[in-house]
Amino acid sequence: MTENEIGKIVVDAAVSVHRDLGPGLLETVYEVVLAHVLRQRGLAVERQVPVPIEYCGIRFDEGFRADIIVEGKVILELKSVQTVSNAHKKQLLTYLRLTGLKLGYLLNFGEALMKDGITRTVNKLDEDQ
């Protein structure tokens, strides 16, 4: 399954979860439920995945934790805020660069409409997939 195919399932699942739960709950609520929904749709899902930093051949385990990684290919960063900032977007791009993954979604469940809370970010992704 390609990154873009996974992405379509992720977006559909996020919209479904947002429609069912509404906006403004804690991020962890959306994380648990979204992970469950994605698993029900047949995807491999990991939550709170530690991602180390490697620099000059040295590995630092104090990197970050990705909220969700789907199929080992797509990172999901979940928020439940009134407005997504540029810092949130840079955070996701940093995660993509450090992991070498090519596609990520910033999903803000704080928006009134989920479609307004979806930011797709790519890192050297071949869009023809």
* Structural classification: alpha+beta
Helix fraction? 25-40%
Strand order of the largest sheet: 1-2-3-4-5
Rg from Cα: 14 Å
What name does CATH use for the topology? Trna Endonuclease, Chain: A, domain 1
Q: Can you characterise this structure?
A:
- This protein has 129 residues and is an alpha+beta fold.
- It has a single domain (3-122), classed as 3-Layer(aba) Sandwich (Trna Endonuclease, Chain: A, domain 1).
- The protein has three helices and five strands.
- It has helices spanning 3-21, 27-40, 86-99; strands at 45-55, 58-70, 74-79, 103-108, 118-122.
- The protein has a five-stranded mixed beta sheet.
- A hairpin with a 2-residue loop joins strand 1 and strand 2 (58-70).
In a nutshell, what does this entry contain?
The chain is an alpha+beta fold and 129 residues long.
Supply the key terms.
Trna Endonuclease, Chain: A, domain 1; five-stranded mixed β-sheet; 129 residues; 36% helix
